[in-house]
């Protein structure tokens, strides 16, 4: 479990000498929502440089994924590993690798964990910069047979690195995918998403989905929001994906203002049972 290092280190003596300043990199934890239990979690505890838990995560290895992305996603520790302080780091790098000019990583729970409904949340510090595209999202476990978008896609957090105060949540399904997704954005009242950790969550109920940032709900979608001819496809299990893309249709390419490497730090991912 998480180690509250800042609290332990900040004794009266230390505070008297240097003061106690909140460190956005210190892991925090939250209590489960009232009456809910965790069904799956990863706290990313482990030695620095070690790979994510193979019993919980696998990898998509390759490039593009249908969005004109520029990075080659790998399973190398240089792109995805634990930092030894209770975080997962996904690192986008500028380098020549197997025909691509950038590398990063894309990890997922496909074949290892799926769930229908409930609360899915992650506490994340995001990277920043033109052309940087991190996401925390879900795909329907039937994608192999139904294809996309018929399987459904739930974007819990999608973010343009060139807009560091704004996060977006979306639903993709038949008749409302890509640029026509059901979507809305949340803008931080102060600060930026790369300046500290924030909790991104979705509360998924029968026929209803609510997005939250730091427990502030900012969007609710129901089956009645699906456009004519579309289908609500969110009543079956989905798996989890975490990734940092470079370039692509959503963000455009990096430019001279973009610095590398860029790192997404994930403090935890937790999934709770559906509301009774």
Rg, Cα atoms, Å: 19 Å
Distance between the termini: 27 Å
Q: DSSP strand (E) fraction? A: 35-45%
Elements, N to C (H/E):
HHEEEEEEEEEEHEEEEEEEE
Helix and strand composition category: mainly beta
The residue fraction in helices comes out at under 10%
Top-tier CATH class of the largest domain: Mainly Beta
When the domains are counted, the total is: 2
Largest sheet: 11 strands, mixed
CATH architecture group name of the largest domain: Sandwich
Find the count of extended strands (DSSP E, 2+ residues): 18
Can you tell me the CATH topology of the largest domain?
Jelly Rolls
Q: For the residues shown, what is the average pLDDT?
A: 90
Low-confidence segments, ≥5 residues, pLDDT <50? 1-23
What general outline do the C-alpha atoms trace? globular
Number of helices: 3
Q: Which features would summarize this protein structure in a list?
A:
mainly beta; Jelly Rolls; 11-stranded mixed sheet; 6% helix; 18 strands; disordered N terminus; globular; 276 residues; 2 domains; 7-stranded antiparallel sheet
């Amino acid at each position: 479990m998480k180690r509250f290092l800042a609290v332990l280190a900040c004794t009266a003596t230390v505070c008297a000498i240097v003061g106690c300043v909140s460190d956005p990199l210190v892991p925090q934890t939250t209590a489960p929502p009232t009456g809910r239990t965790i069904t799956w979690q990863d706290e990313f505890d482990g030695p620095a440089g070690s790979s994510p838990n193979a019993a919980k995560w696998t990898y998509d290895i390759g490039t593009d994924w249908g969005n004109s992305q520029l990075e080659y996603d790998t399973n190398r520790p240089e792109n995805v590993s634990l930092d030894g302080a209770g975080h997962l780091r996904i690192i986008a790098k500028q380098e020549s690798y197997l025909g691509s000019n950038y590398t990063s990583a894309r990890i997922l729970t496909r074949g290892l964990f799926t769930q229908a409904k409930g609360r899915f949340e992650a506490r994340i510090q995001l990277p920043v910069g033109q052309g940087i595209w991190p996401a925390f999202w879900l795909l329907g476990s039937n994608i192999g047979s139904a294809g996309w978008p018929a399987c459904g896609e739930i974007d819990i957090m999608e973010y343009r690195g060139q807009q560091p105060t704004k996060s977006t949540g979306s639903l993709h399904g038949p008749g409302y995918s890509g640029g026509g997704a059901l979507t809305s954005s949340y803008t931080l009242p102060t600060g930026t998403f790369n300046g500290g950790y924030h909790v991104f969550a979705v509360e998924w109920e029968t026929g209803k989905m609510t997005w939250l940032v730091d427990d502030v709900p900012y969007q609710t979608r129901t089956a009645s929001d699906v456009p004519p001819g579309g289908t609500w496809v969110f009543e079956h299990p989905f798996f989890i994906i975490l990734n940092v893309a470079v370039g692509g249709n959503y963000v455009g390419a990096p430019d001279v203002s973009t610095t590398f490497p860029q790192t997404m730090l994930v403090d935890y991912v937790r999934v709770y049972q559906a509301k009774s």
